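Support request from a user on the community tier.

User writes: "When I paste my structure tokens into the form, the page sometimes reloads and wipes my input. The last time it worked, I copied everything first. Here is what I submitted, just in case something in the input itself triggers the reload:"
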């Protein structure tokens, strides 16, 4: 009987101690969670941006064209994030000059243009926080550095010319290339022409940038980004007749960034 009472008392003692430890652990976790929430609320009031991920889109204006991009960001800490980006743009040659058709019955012509050039980029950037907001009306500044792969899409520029008294569209590398070079011309292509002869030239790129986020609310992104791009392709890109073909492209850009954080 005494042994049974001793066992019962011991079980009660250890059970009570275990319950107290469990309650302490639970209370400790709740307190840590409350402290994290309080810290995030304080940072929000001070303008400090805290998030786990974000999604953004925006237009882009380059020194030789324009484009659009989409971006997904994953936070590593308050000061670092990884940005995954997809971008499509159009590069124009500096010698391009659009000429209107006097008859007005066809699209304008760019004399000597051989290909439309659309770089499609898939890449990653590492984002570093340089300066956080001092308040909700402040500006957050980040440096983004990275690069990735390019699929350079070349869409033939088809020109409307006269062939044996009939108006037809020809391209530079077609059997009727002499007509392309000599004319006479009636006009350029519409947007729907040339896609069936699309060619792809692969490449790589590097893109450093600075981003200025002036959005008033931390859960939204309203930013201006300025940066540089360097692109290298597997072979030279033919854009214009009688002009030097380039394999390396270097330029600057400015873009607007709109998105949301979570």
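"...and here is what came back when it finally went through:"
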């Amino acid at each position: 009987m005494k042994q049974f009472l001793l066992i019962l008392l011991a079980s009660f003692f250890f059970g009570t101690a275990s319950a107290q430890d469990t309650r302490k652990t639970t209370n400790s976790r709740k307190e840590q969670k409350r402290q994290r929430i309080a810290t995030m609320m304080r940072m929000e009031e001070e303008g400090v941006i805290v998030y786990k991920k974000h999604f953004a889109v925006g237009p882009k204006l380059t020194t030789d064209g324009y484009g659009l991009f989409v971006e997904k960001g994953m936070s590593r800490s308050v000061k670092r994030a990884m940005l995954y980006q997809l971008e499509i743009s159009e590069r124009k040659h500096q010698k391009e000059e659009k000429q209107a058709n006097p008859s007005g019955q066809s699209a304008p012509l760019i004399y000597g243009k051989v290909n439309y050039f659309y770089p499609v980029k898939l890449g990653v950037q590492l984002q570093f926080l340089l300066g956080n907001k001092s308040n909700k009306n402040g500006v957050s500044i980040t440096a983004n550095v990275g690069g990735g792969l390019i699929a350079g899409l070349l869409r033939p520029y088809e020109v409307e010319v006269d062939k044996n008294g009939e108006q037809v569209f020809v391209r530079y590398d077609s059997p009727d290339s002499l007509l392309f070079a000599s004319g006479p011309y009636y006009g350029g292509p519409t947007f729907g022409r040339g896609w069936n002869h699309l060619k792809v030239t692969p490449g790589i790129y590097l893109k450093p940038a600075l981003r200025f986020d002036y959005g008033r609310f931390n859960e939204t992104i309203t930013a201006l980004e300025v940066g540089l791009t360097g692109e290298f392709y597997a072979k030279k890109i033919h854009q214009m007749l009688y002009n030097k073909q380039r394999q390396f492209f270097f330029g600057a850009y400015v873009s607007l960034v709109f998105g949301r954080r979570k």
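Agent notes: The reload is a front-end session timeout and is unrelated to the input. The longest helix spans residues 2-46. The chain is about 20% helix and 50% strand. Escalated to web team.
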